[in-house]
Amino acid sequence: MNNMTWLDLYTFLYNQANDSKNFGKMNWQEPVMVHDANTGDELNCDTWVVSDSNGQDKLVIATNIETIYSERN
Prior knowledge:
Elements: H1 6-18, E1 33-35, E2 42-51, E3 57-63, H2 66-72
Antiparallel strand pairs: 1-2, 2-3
C-alpha cells in the first residue's frame, strides 16, 4: 500500500490543473469525497488541523465532522 504525502496530493492536483491535456476532465466545484474501496461507501470530508497524542498539530482530511459539533452541544 502506498502512503500518499501532502506533496504527492499537491503534485497530482497541480498536474490536473496545469496540464492542457487534462483541461475539462476535473470538475473543480465538486465536493471532495473519501471513497472506501472495501465497501464502496463515499463520505464527505474537510481539512482540519488536529492535535495528536503528543500535542503536535497536524493537517488531516477528516470525515464524520458533524460528530465534533454534536459533542459540543
